[in-house]
């Protein structure tokens, strides 16, 4: 029975990883095509639907970690996926004024390259039981460049959105009300920006540690 459930788990995770991989491939192709034909201002419109679908599918990774389907720590997965969902839905989807900025191009390319490598790595691992050394190296090395470019783009787009957030009542809950509670999306967005300050170096250091472990095993093999 344990063997059966293990097989079902591997099949499910293989399908999940390759399905999301396909979504990110689509995002990258659409982004490059839009950049080549129309420039950075056209990128968001070209990738909007596959970007939203592929990024939102990452919520399942949090669930996978919570129920023990994968060994990835939720403490590392949750902030990264949470910040990306905030930018995808809370900034780009909610404030169209940000969509034509060149940072959208760097964001989309950084995210898609990262995820194409990551999902193919895990997809191959689940489907075949191993990953080639070159893919393992890419998985644990490309973040050295793509993480800073992605984070810079995320922070930049949130900052660019701040004046539009302040001028809008989107997602705000004003007093007086029967719950005696208020919520201001502008200050919440400022708080998210503040979290990036300690959070980004922490995540980068964590990934450097993971890289050291993974590549040391590769050298020993």
Q: How is the secondary structure organized here?
A:
Blueprint: H1 2-37, H2 43-56, H3 59-66, H4 74-93, H5 102-128, H6 133-139, H7 143-166, H8 185-220
Helix pairs in contact: 1-2, 1-5, 2-4, 3-4, 4-7, 5-6, 5-7, 7-8
What does this structure look like?
- The protein is mostly helical and 221 residues long.
- Helices cover 78% and strands 0% of the residues.
- The protein has eight helices and no strands.
- Helix 5 (102-128) packs across helix 7 (143-166).
- It is globular.
- The two termini are 32 Å apart.
- The mean pLDDT is 93.
Distance between the termini: 32 Å
From the alpha-carbon coordinates, what is the Rg to the nearest angstrom? 19 Å
Major sheet: size, sense and barrel closure?
A: none
What global shape is seen?
globular
What is the overall pLDDT average?
93
Number of strands: 0
Total helical segments: 8
SSE string: HHHHHHHH
Please give the share of residues in helix.
Answer: over 70%
* Strand residue content: under 5%
Q: Which regions contain 5 or more consecutive residues with pLDDT less than 50?
A: none
Computed structural class: mainly alpha
